[in-house]
Amino acid sequence: MEIHRDTRIAELISHDERSIETLVSVSSRFKKLRNPMIRKVMAGQVSIAMAARVGGVAEQAIFDALASIGFQCNSVGSPEGSGFTNKAAPDLAHDHVDSEAAGKSEKEFKFKTEFHSAPGRIVDLDVRPIMDRGEEPLSAILKAAETVGVDERLRIINSFAPEPLIGLLGKKGFEGYIYSAKDCFHACFIRRSMQAVSKPDPISERQTDPNPMVTETGLHTTGGGRRAVVRLDVRGMTPPGPMVKILKTLESLSSTQQLYVFHERIPRFLFPQLAEQGYAYRTSEQGGTDVRLLIGRRP
Which residue range(s) make up the domain with 13? Predict the structure, then answer.
């Protein structure tokens, strides 16, 4: 299997489960991948480039370790061009990649300097106790974000790198980066605007059902019929249990089946996973603890 810096960790593990222990050998911070629930939630969202930042190691160290178990490390297939290759590259291309990487590093350095030196308030939120209680931290994070004004700062402390927060809070006017600290990660944000940033939904097929309730009859197929629907109730499960259960159930369904989910909240962290894996969905919220989802493969 050829890999590049944008290859997802989930792809590595799916291809060869030895990838887990190989990554752990590079950095002890990857030990969390041994936990099936954490692995199911995070591995699909984290690329090799992100993992290097999480583990506090060079991307090259990860590539070298994975090469030892048979992976072919090459930049081919990387959407943006990683600059990593095990083949000789023209100096011009190499210089271009180095300049691009340097630009990104400079931007991140400037942000970190501004975050720690700028005057004004920092709102700190440690979500580890919330996670330890088996509760969903997102509502607490969004509540804390609402209290942050323009040019004020927000720092989320977590036991793993909460990469989805960058995009989620980015839509609310925040700029942010994630930094590793001792035994934890800091997701640091500066609010640039109080006005929400309008961004296209990552799933163009996402719909709000025109009826008051998403029903169990299923979405129409291209042939005019309806797909078979499988019911799943994740109410009462502690995070990340619902997401893990939904994704695992989807894996067992055929392309002609859809999943009808009873949930207690809008699972915002689930939606990027569905987009990446090729699913469309509808949602219906009838109250604070009554949410229905209908999920199926894109045509």
Answer: 2-73
Beta strands in 11-166 (DSSP E): 72-73, 122-126, 153-158
- Asked if residue 87 belongs to a domain, the reply is no
Q: Per the domain annotation, does 103 fall within a domain?
A: no
Q: What is the domain-level CATH number for residue 164?
A: 3.30.110
Contact 155, 189 (CB under 8 A): yes
Query: How many Cα atoms occupy the beta-carbon half-sphere of 207 within 13 Å?
Result: 16
- This model's pTM is above 0.85: no
Select from 41, 32, 187 the least CA-distant residue to 125: 187
Last residue of a domain, one of 43, 73, 103: 73
Question: What is residue 43's DSSP assignment?
Answer: T
Contact 291, 247 (CB under 8 A): no
In a shared domain, residues 212 and 186:
no
Number of domains in the chain: 3
pLDDT at 207: 43
| Cα 271 → chain centroid | 9
For the chain, residues with pLDDT lower than 70 are 37-38, 40-42, 44-45, 75-104, 134-135, 196-227
Distance CA 22, CA 232 (A): 35
